Amino acid sequence: MNGRVSERAYAESGVDTAQSDAAVSALVSVLGTIDPGRPSRAVMGSGHYANVLRLDDTTGLALSTDGVGTKVIVAEQLGRFDTIGIDCIAMNVNDLICVGAEPIALVDYIAVERADPEMLGQVAEGLKAGAEQAGIEIPGGELAQLPDVIRGHPSPTGFDLVGTCVGLVRLDAIVTGARIEPGDAIVGIASSGLHSNGYTLARRALPDLGEALGTGTVGDALIEPTRIYVREVVDLLRSDVDVRGLAHITGDGLLNLGRLDAPVGYRIADPLPPQPVFELIAARSGTPPEEMYEVFNMGCGLCCIVPPGNAEEAAAALGGRVIGEATDREGVVEVVGLEGRRGEGFRRASTASR
User: Rounded to two decimals, what is the model's pTM?
Assistant: First the structure.
């Protein structure tokens, strides 16, 4: 196969998720011991999509921060910078809504190799488009020129883009997943493609950005902006539907369902179809399904868990469909002949484990 890599393709391409998990644990183990000299305002523990700080007896301030990873390299190689800001907004607001919060503002941090007004103007256009899709403001940010740190592909177009998002949520309306029960329905909402995860592997598998793919090119597929789910999810949260869990499907794929606070498992019996770019990555890299479903969203960008009686209404409101249900196999995610747990990845499911 063209560009074939080894069985653990993501690690071979430079991203070792097991090592990353250990590094995060090292960070959290220290940061969790911070003594602010007053009672903590944090309502949730570490590990969810966002955290919530108690402002008063009724209101919480939700916080999330994220970047767009090596998708910036695709933008540099294509010389197209007008959509990458959408990804920055999306990766943050899509996390924030998973705790039931309504995003209200984001501040950005842009590190550049060279401060090019034309390039930064294009980045700003994407930030504006994403902010308007999400219904948020960008009241400020930071630009850092770091030629000794940032190197472009090609130089001197290198940059990195990160955001920090805030939102509001009633303390009695925080969505954690704790109320999910076996038998609850999983509604899946389609992604727009890779979103902003797995690009180290994707770029290695598909180095020719001008290669034809469908009605466009590989470059078009890789630069496609991350879908923003804020408006439909916020509308659903304001409805009478009992939203018990929300999962943003990013790195770790559908194993992200395991981040929800519930002693249940999840069975994806009818997954959403992956876009052609996923099939091409798998074919060119030799990456097996168990790793594809761990690294990528595989066509599903967000999951919403509701009682069975609310499934049809939730699917209609979100523009998605029921793809599975919660099970009594605590911590286990099952999909297309695979099963896995967070931190362990997917493996081929055995009939004896059913």
Answer: 0.91
Q: What per-residue confidence (pLDDT) applies to 33?
A: 83
> How far, CA to CA in Å, does 322 sit from each of 64, 195, 264, 316?
28, 21, 18, 10
In 29-158, DSSP assigns E strands to 51-54, 59-67, 102-112, 137-145
Cα separation, 345 vs 341, whole angstroms:
6
DSSP annotation of 113? S
**Predicted pLDDT at 26:** 82
Question: Per CATH, the architecture of 185-353 is what?
Answer: Alpha-Beta Complex (3.90)
Domain ranges of the chain: 41-173, 185-353
Residues 188 and 272: beta-carbon distance below 8 Å: yes
Strand 265-268 and strand 345-348: pairing? Answer: unpaired
CATH (residue range 41-173): 3.30.1330.10
Residue 156: closest CA among 107, 192, 119, 181: 119
- Give the strand order in the sheet containing 185-190: 245-248, 300-306, 185-190, 321-327, 265-268, 333-335, 338-341, 345-348
| Dist CA 247 CA 234 (whole Å) | 14
**Peptide bond just before 103 cis, omega within 30 deg:** no
Question: Which residues of the chain are under the pLDDT cut of 70?
Answer: 1-21, 351-354
The distance between the two most distant Cα atoms of the chain, rounded to a whole number of Å, is 60
Residue 226 is which amino acid?
T
